[in-house]
Design a protein that fits this description.
The protein is an alpha+beta fold. Helix content is 44%, strand content 12%. The relative contact order is 0.08. Belongs to the krueppel C2H2-type zinc-finger protein family.
Length: 104
């Protein structure tokens, strides 16, 4: 039986014993592999009750719901502009710092 400690330890060791047979990517836990498989199967079990769009994970649905609620939980500390998603704030901050992020 896999304990929470064993699972956590994998974040430090880099061990990823669960492999996707379709693309070869590896994962630390079987549930994460199962979620990944949705990228291949197209399964989107989480539905927006307002507009009917479907999503592969609950967190993605939660972010989508902000388009309906208007929630913008990520404020820019420099100019006050608000963002629905943290990556959008990070990209915006480049305007103030004139620096490129590692992700761009």
């Amino acid at each position: 039986m896999l304990t929470a400690l064993n699972t956590h330890t994998r974040t430090h060791t880099g061990e990823k014993p669960y492999f996707c047979e379709r693309c070869g990517k590896s994962f630390t836990t079987k549930p994460i592999l199962s979620i990944h498989m949705r990228t291949h199967t197209g399964e989107k079990p989480y539905f927006c009750e307002r507009c009917g769009k479907s999503f592969s994970t609950k967190p993605i649905l939660s972010v989508h719901m902000r388009t309906h609620t208007g929630e913008m939980p990520y404020p820019c500390d420099i100019c006050g502009r608000m963002f629905r998603q943290q990556p959008h704030l990070v990209k915006h901050l480049m305007i103030h710092t004139n620096k490129k992020s590692c992700n761009s």
